[in-house]
Design a protein that fits this description.
The protein is mainly α. 68% of the residues lie in helices and 4% in strands. It contains 13 helices and four strands. It is globular.
């Protein structure tokens, strides 16, 4: 990239980083919405939460600057405002839930509302590259696939926010790879939006990396999940260049696998899937002796590996890209078997049936 372009980008990112860090500091020192430990908590002392609000405010600020200043990294107004307004609305409802601890149904209703707004705005998958079939028009099924994707990743990311630095660290690494890939593929809106996401998350992580001085809360995790999910569809459908939809699912594949695997496992054991618990694979790994730092660094490292997989993915023919997921799925299956074996040896799953 031309230095005359790179330097303003670095200055812009630095300003967003400082804004995020300053807002997070205020959340630590002034606002102090506390997370009181319970039987399902991985921490033992009260810690301020809802620090993800700093990510949301910094990201919204950066996105608005892009909208009013950028000449090329733009998408149609209906797509941009649908994305930004839905993200802020979802964050606001999640922030309310962080304070008052309302039922899951309220959060789900907000997610469905945001989903409907996104679909109405036209942020919908219309085609996918499939093995043997190539580029396939989805028709009305595109609405259903988009709905499942947006709701699924929003909640998956929320469920994976249970250890210091985990959700934020993975978001930072995933956004870096998404930024690099989008720039290479000339998906300019996704590139600059990922740039803003990197700076916003990095400012928060200053206070969140183990041992955390503040937690992200639902306001941050739900927002990040929704943002990544929306950017995958925006990049594939409405950006300047068509970025492969499969990039984001691969970057976050370990989060998607952990959530899906745990959901199926709990269903098979007749456990209420909507209630909080401590039996995600990452939680079991922590409870069997691995520290917050170790589990966080492992998942960040796995995101790096998946990031290099995504770099390979975009170089392949569209119909071949789905095959890149195969080795990652096989690895995650072995990882799940190993974690469950350790958990049973530690007496953490005494009554559970094998999946």
């Amino acid at each position: 990239m031309d230095p005359s372009v790179l330097l303003p980008h670095i200055g812009f990112a630095a300003a967003i980083f400082c804004l995020s860090a300053a807002l997070t500091y205020l959340m630590v020192r002034v606002v102090r919405i506390m997370d009181i430990p319970s039987a399902r908590s991985s921490h033992t002392r009260p810690v301020p939460k809802s620090g993800g609000l700093a990510i949301v405010v910094a990201f919204a600020t950066g996105s608005l600057i892009i909208y009013f200043v950028a000449r090329y990294a733009r998408i149609e107004d209906r797509y941009f405002w649908g994305f930004l307004i839905c993200g802020i609305l979802l964050a606001a409802v999640s922030f309310f839930d962080d304070i008052f601890q309302k039922s899951f149904l309220i959060k789900l209703a907000a997610q469905v509302l945001c989903l409907l707004v996104m679909l109405a705005a036209g942020v919908v998958l219309s085609r996918l590259s499939l093995p043997f079939a190539g580029e396939t028009e989805l028709g009305w099924s595109g609405y259903a696939i988009t709905a499942v994707w947006l709701l699924g990743l929003t909640n998956a990311y929320n469920f994976m926010d249970g250890l210091d630095g985990l959700a934020g660290g993975v978001a930072l690494v995933a956004a870096i790879f998404l930024c690099v890939i989008a720039l290479h593929e000339r998906s300019l809106f996704v590139y600059l939006t990922s740039y803003v996401l990197i700076a916003s998350v990095a400012g928060f992580l200053v206070f969140n990396f183990p041992v955390a001085r503040i937690f992200m809360g639902d306001v941050g995790s739900a927002f990040l999940g929704f943002s990544f999910a929306a950017l995958a569809v925006i990049g594939a459908q409405v950006d300047f260049a068509r970025l492969s939809f499969y990039v984001v699912p691969l970057l976050l594949f370990h989060f998607i696998f952990d959530t899906s695997f745990t959901f199926v496992r709990r269903l098979m054991n007749s456990e209420p899937v909507h209630e909080a618990h401590r039996t995600h694979l990452y939680q079991l790994l922590n409870r069997t002796g691995f520290s917050h730092v170790a589990v966080c660094l492992y998942h960040c490292g796995m995101t790096v590996v998946q990031g290099f997989g995504a770099l390979v993915l975009v170089k392949l023919e569209p119909s071949e890209r789905i095959y890149v997921f195969v080795p990652f799925f096989m690895y995650q299956a072995l990882y799940a078997w190993w974690v469950l074996r350790r958990a049973r040896a530690h007496g953490l799953l005494p009554h559970e049936h094998d999946v």
